[in-house]
Design goal:
It is a single chain. The longest helix has about 55 residues, at about 10-65. This protein has about 190 residues and is of the alpha+beta class. It is about 30% helix and about 25% strand. It is rod-shaped and about 120 Å long.
């Protein structure tokens, strides 16, 4: 019969459009989720690379210099608790301090999104930020052992204060802030 031409009915078209729309929504959700995961991974990799750089810079100063025990004496810090700053003396006698910024020193950070930051003070110079923009310091602690300078000879005792080799343990937690809050990455 010539009345019936081959083609699609309105109902068939609506079913195909519904299936196509569902597939497009699912595909776009998968794309958005993978994009979000990729940004989070890039943030994590950047935070890890920055943390590695900061630890290597502090480690280099610890290895080439010595702990400034005079800075720690008389401060009343409890043994076994982390100190808020690391005080060193480099090979030419310059004092170096590493510490996290606070309300007083936050003006030294790169920008507002990078507060608090890790600062280094060399000699009498003003503290300078070590952390790049978009990275904040969540936690920073330095464990210095032994509590007394092991290289000081006590003539009354006829020996040194301790036989322990000086050790510094750095505990640091950083957060990348250049990503959205739900995608923030923390490196400890």
């Amino acid at each position: 019969d010539s009345r019936y031409s081959p083609g699609f009915t309105l109902l068939e078209m609506l079913i195909v459009l519904g299936i196509f729309s569902t597939v497009v929504v699912i595909a776009s959700d998968i794309f958005l989720m993978s994009s979000r995961a990729q940004r989070k991974i890039f943030g994590l990799e950047r935070a890890q690379a920055d943390a590695r750089f900061l630890l290597e810079a502090m480690t280099r100063e610890v290895r080439t210099g010595e702990i400034d025990y005079a800075h720690y004496s008389g401060r009343g810090e409890a043994i076994g608790r982390p100190d808020r700053e690391l005080a060193l003396i480099d090979p030419i006698g310059t004092k170096i301090r590493f510490f996290a910024s606070d309300a007083v020193t936050e003006v030294n950070c790169q920008d507002e999104a990078s507060r608090p930051c890790l600062l280094v003070a060399i000699g009498a110079d003003a503290p300078q930020p070590m952390t790049p923009k978009g990275l904040i310091v969540r936690e920073l602690g330095f464990y210095v052992a032994p509590a007394v300078d092991p290289f000081v000879f006590d003539p009354a005792d006829g020996g040194y204060a301790t036989d322990d080799q000086p050790l510094v343990t750095i505990v640091m937690s950083l957060e990348a802030t250049e990503v959205r809050s739900e995608e923030s990455t923390v490196v400890s």
